[in-house]
Amino acid sequence: MAKAHPDAVLTGLDLDGQAVAAARERLPGADIRQADFIEADESLPHASFDLVITNPPYVRTQVLGAAAAARLAARFGLKGRIDLTHPFVAMAPDLLRPGGVLALLCSNRFLTTRAGVNVRGLLSERLAVREVFDLGDTRLFEAAVLPAIVVAVKGAQGVARFASAYEVPQEAPEGDLYAALTGQDDTVVRFGARTFAVSVGTLARGAPEQPWRLTNPDRDRRHAHVRSRTWRTLGELARIRVGIKTTADPVFIGDRWDTLPPEHSPEPELLRPLLTHHDVRAWLPPRPPRTQVLYPYLDLPTRTVVDLSAHPRAAAYLGLHRARLEGRRYLRAAGREWFEIWVPQRPSMWREPKIVFPDISPEPRFTVDRSGAVVNGDCYWISVPELVAPGVTCDDLANLVVGVANSAFGARFYDEVCGNRLYAGRRRWITQYVGLLPLPDPTTAAAREVIEAVGSLTAGDHGQLPRLERAVRAAFGEL
Ligand SMILES: C[S@@+](CC[C@H](N)C(=O)[O-])C[C@H]1O[C@@H](n2cnc3c(N)ncnc32)[C@H](O)[C@@H]1O
């Protein structure tokens, strides 16, 4: 740029001495300062820059510290979870002249996460987004996070272009990824050793609380059609809960309880099988879990801790770890016992059948567990008896949910509404999007067919998969 615009006045800031030295070498004549950008507000001329290019640090509140996060929140009017990207984006509109451009390279998480509300809000209310590139798992940059690029102007709102690239497990001719990302049509291209599905369209966004999505006329039509065939969404039908969170896993969770000395070996009635993402697979019941959790609660609908004096060996074992467990001061602050787990969920619900799915997995892995196991915090679960609708059993409803969620239709729908994928095609099954999964009217013939196919698949008849896929498509009128 310095070469193309020899008269351009370049100002650069970085905290890091090496980065500053490298920039000075590359951009002789530019004003490169080793300084804190967030504190440099006063020393930079407001409303004067034609272009602000930033690849801000991505440092989360936990690392930032609560006090620093609170200060930034107050100064920049930010809410919820703050990361360092937010103040960088918040400062850009003040620095730009009218018509000036912000080019932002940051983590793509802001597009879809709740914590992204600050960036989505700033980019919508103080700037006008022109282009968004979700570079997904292309690894075009060396970064620990998946990157996105946003180009926004300080000017009037208009339609914003949206392009995304995610790796897919298929073959395709070698192509130009940049041309595909800036082109007109969805394409699949091989780039190096990997193949990417490139989607192009426009940015669909509502209030800042809503995620940003890519849309195009084809998708809009399809989603409108699916909506017209939707009886209820999963979120309307069911409550999706996360598994337990102990906040002291090495104390509460283990697969070698039997190796403890007898006097410290917790009573068997307090050790419960614990399903983790290792055990959960699509269709088939989960594998018998290897791990067990020391679960110090009575089998009641509400959280009621056991009387430790009635379980002397568990008491002795927990006593060994008392200092560590008491270090969790938030438990005490919440008026709870030192030997509790942080999120135990509803103790008596574990005995009931439940739909379980892992938090992170490349493919949908929804299944029904009838073993009574506890579910770990790396999975989500839905209690089957809570699925209620006239004229249908809760077991049939569970099969309908599992059938749609595990189908190719379900995975595609999820990708299109959620759009957030991790490396190597792994998806994060975020409950707010899983809750949007459409379900067809369970009393229709096509839905009955889905329910029956799921019955066979869960009994191990994998040959029923084509029937299931056909039935799900038919239930949504996709023939
Ligand atoms: C994601 S890296 C950018 C890397 C750069 N694009 C490159 O390719 O080398 C973020 C940069 O922001 C700098 N940084 C972090 N906090 C800063 C602050 N408050 N003010 C200025 N620079 C900061 C870091 O030193 C780091 O160089």
UniProtKB/TrEMBL annotation:
Q: Can you tell which superkingdom this protein's organism belongs to?
A: Bacteria
**Which SUPFAM superfamilies does this entry report, sorted A to Z?**
S-adenosyl-L-methionine-dependent methyltransferases
- Say yes or no: keyword Methyltransferase present: yes
Give the EC number.
2.1.1.72
Domain named Type II methyltransferase M.TaqI-like: residues = 37-141
Cite the InterPro entries for this sequence: DNA_methylase_N6_adenine_CS (IPR002052), MethylTrfase_TaqI-like_dom (IPR011639), N4_N6_ade-DNA_methylase (IPR050953), SAM-dependent_MTases_sf (IPR029063)
What molecular function terms (GO) are annotated for this protein?
A: nucleic acid binding; site-specific DNA-methyltransferase (adenine-specific) activity
GO biological process per UniProt: DNA modification; methylation
Q: Does the keyword S-adenosyl-L-methionine apply?
A: yes
**Name the record gives this protein:** site-specific DNA-methyltransferase (adenine-specific)
